[in-house]
Amino acid sequence: MTEQTLHGNCVLVGTRGILIRGVSGSGKSELTDTLIEAARAKGNLGVLVADDRVFLSANQGFLIARAPEQIEGLMEIRGSGIVRQTALSAAKVDLIVDLQPLDTMERLPQDALGSQVLKSIEVPLLVCPANNPGVAVRLIRWGLRSLFPKVPDYI
Fold first, then answer.
1. Within 13 Å of residue 22, how many CA atoms lie on the same side as its CB?
2. CA–CA separation, 95 vs 10, rounded Å?
3. pTM, two decimal places
4. How far out from the chain centre does Cα 39 lie?
């Protein structure tokens, strides 16, 4: 099994794995923390998989994310340092979130949900504004509702 290393984060909310990508300083860790807290506030599972670097692999038709061993369970809180977090060793990726500057995003996109192929697996893709976790959570909630209409809201 060959792995691809990606600069990004992965979080599990309820039963859904979310891979978060963006340039350094785009708010990946802040969004990860916000998603974890939003899930927990609703009484659902919210747990870190990986912060900063993610190993991706394909397994039985699914994209799997996991943290490199050296940083498993660690998360950067900008301005505070590295903190230890409860973490899962791996999660299936159900949604990719790309963080982009707000001024580069379409206001009313034709198709808000796209897709991307990673490790030969097609995964839904959602673009969210960088450094704006409130708006990003709202868009992710909408995206998950669209993709999984019979599943409860985890965030």
1. 28
2. 10
3. 0.94
4. 13
Greatest extent of the chain over all pairs of C-alpha atoms, in Å: 41
Q: CA 154, 152, 155: angle at the middle one, nearest 5? A: 20
3-state secondary structure 86-132: CECCEEEEEEEEEEECHHHCCCCCCCCEEEEEECCEEEEEEEEECCC
Residues 47-87 pLDDT 10s: 999 999 999 999 999 999 999 999 999 998 877 889 999 99
Q: Domain 4-147 maps to which CATH number in 3.50.50.60, 3.10.180.10, 1.10.1200.10, 3.40.50.300?
A: 3.40.50.300
Radius of gyration of the chain (CA): 14
Cα gap 14→94, rounded to integer Å: 11
3-state secondary structure of 155: coil
C-beta neighbour count of 131 within 10 angstroms:
16
Nearest-5° Cα angle at 138, 133 to 139: 95
| pLDDT greater than 80 at residue 1 | no
Inform me whether the pLDDT recorded for 117 exceeds 90.
Answer: yes
